[in-house]
Amino acid sequence: MSAKTEFVEQAKQGRVLARRCTSCGFIHLATVYFCRKCGSRGFEDHPIEGRGSIATYTIITVPPAGFEKYTPYAWVVMDLDGSDLRISGFMAGIGSPGDLPVGTPARVAGFDERGIIIEKAVK
Ligand SMILES: [Zn+2]
Question: Which residues form the ChsH2 rubredoxin-like zinc ribbon domain (predicted)?
């Protein structure tokens, strides 16, 4: 399975596929060639729970071609629980800042043509 496919499969199960340095344990989100912390070249797949809270977002009112049917929506940045990692993704139904206070609990809910799908989490 390709790295991209594996990432998508994990997202569909609510997880984020990160890469863990086999020398020092530092977690990276993207495919990297050298560990940012220790310089090692060894990595292993490390799925983490796709739960966290909204850090910031942009409400999209003028969508790219093909995305008109999804408006309004937000492109959100989510802080993942238990780490300093952030991911960005699509959240449907956000039309004004009142719809989504910063800090709102959120979770990864899937992956499709829109990218990572993020939903408000019920705690
Ligand atoms: Zn390392």
Answer: 9-44
